[in-house]
Design goal:
Length: about 180
Amino acid sequence: MSQHPQKFIPLANMRGSLRSFTEKDRSRIVAAANSGGRGDGLLRFPEPYTAKHFDFLLTGPKHWLFPWEVCGIEVERELVGCIGAHPFKEDWKKHCVMVGYWVDKRVEGYGITSAAVTSMLALIVRRSHFKRVESSVFAWNQASKRILQKNGFVEEGVEQGSIYKAGQHIDMIRMAKSVAE
């Protein structure tokens, strides 16, 4: 059973929502996560993604600061992805949160991810103490960079060759946005 009751947050400018996960979502998320090299463009993503990984989302770590740290992206009653806001644990960076996301490859390019980021940012501002939101994208993932830019993120720099994944060194672009009121 989910640690948090089922809740919905409207998806910006779209018929959908960000919502908590349920056990019924397990097979859908596992299948979508393993479709077509899904983890290739993600910084921290287990491959293969298993039911055990999904089960962690249901219970959540005990340090969660708000119940929406990780949630599903649903459009027209279909779960199509995941978005998370992960607080930094270090004292000197507790005012910052890292946002990450992915959607099923079948629905890329329809504005769903951008709407999910917009909704997550609104949630972060309303329900938390965070002043800064960060995200990192691989340099080759220009679509993800554009999603962040549409949501007010700016590029702060490139960490050349800082990620080693799939047998190669990859440049990572650091993006950030101030959410201080």
